[in-house]
Specification:
Layout (H helix, E strand, L loop, with lengths): L5 H18 L5 H14 L4 E11 L2 E12 L3 E3 L9 H10 L21 H5 L2
Amino acid sequence: MELHHGDITEEIIGAAFEVYNVLGYGFLEKVYQRAMQVELRARGLTAEIEAEIRVNYKGVEVGFYKADLWVNGLVLVELKVRNPISRTTSLNCSTNSRPRASRSACSSTPAERKWSSNEWFSNC
C-alpha cells in the first residue's frame, strides 16, 4: 500500500523512534511534542506545534482543530502518551527494585532519585 506523503511519513516514524530511544517513557505529552518538533526540524522538516486547522463541511466552516504537530504543512501528527510516571510510581520503583549494577539510579531516598536519564528506567 502506497502512503500519501510516504517520504515525510517515514521521517516522522523515524523521529518518533529516536525520541523514544533518547527519552524513554513516562513523560507528559508536551515533552514528547517538543522533542518531536526538535527531531523533525533536525531532519529538515517543518513542524508546527498546535497548528490551527480550519474544518469545512460542504463549503461551510464548522470549526477548527489544533493538531499536536503539523509537519511540512501536509501531515497531521497526533501524539498519545500512556500513564506518565508519577511520584507514587517512582516510590514503588525505588522500594521494589533490586540494583542490577553496582550503581543503581533508583535510590532509597527521595533526594537521590533521578528523573533525567534512561538509566533510571532501565534499572527499575
